[in-house]
Amino acid sequence: MRPDEHRWLKFSALFYALGLALHTADHFRRGLDASTSQVLIVGNISTALGITVAVMVIVGYRHAPFLAAVTGFPVAFGVAAVHLLPKWSAFSDTFVNAHNTGVTALSWSVVLIEIAGALAMGIAGLAVVREDRAPLVPTR
Predict the structure, then answer these.
(1) Which residue range is the domain that position 117 belongs to?
(2) The pTM is what?
(3) What are the Cα distances from residue 39, in Å, to 12, 27, 35, 93?
């Protein structure tokens, strides 16, 4: 792994962790009763997984790029599905037309930061994995 790739992967993991922490704090601000138990359970699993992968990236665990690639994309799409789509199931905590649930501009901001961070971490992880698996080109 080249140093610049490692730097971007660490930066994206830190950016994701910031968004995750702010989004979690916003859930507490809104009140845990504003979300269904299904959203809270899946959110706690996603948070535990996200913290674990971000820490592995930051400390330089050798399989961290792969883990970032396989978790970043699903977390980004999952958080987007839960919060950005209109109500679609018990796994929905939609911000669309949210009334009396405490959703503010801050809520929108932090969830978008988390989604962007998770997506960036997935992209950076994938780039490192692809670079590490690229065949060496002989030089003359």
Answers:
(1) 3-133
(2) 0.88
(3) 25, 11, 6, 7
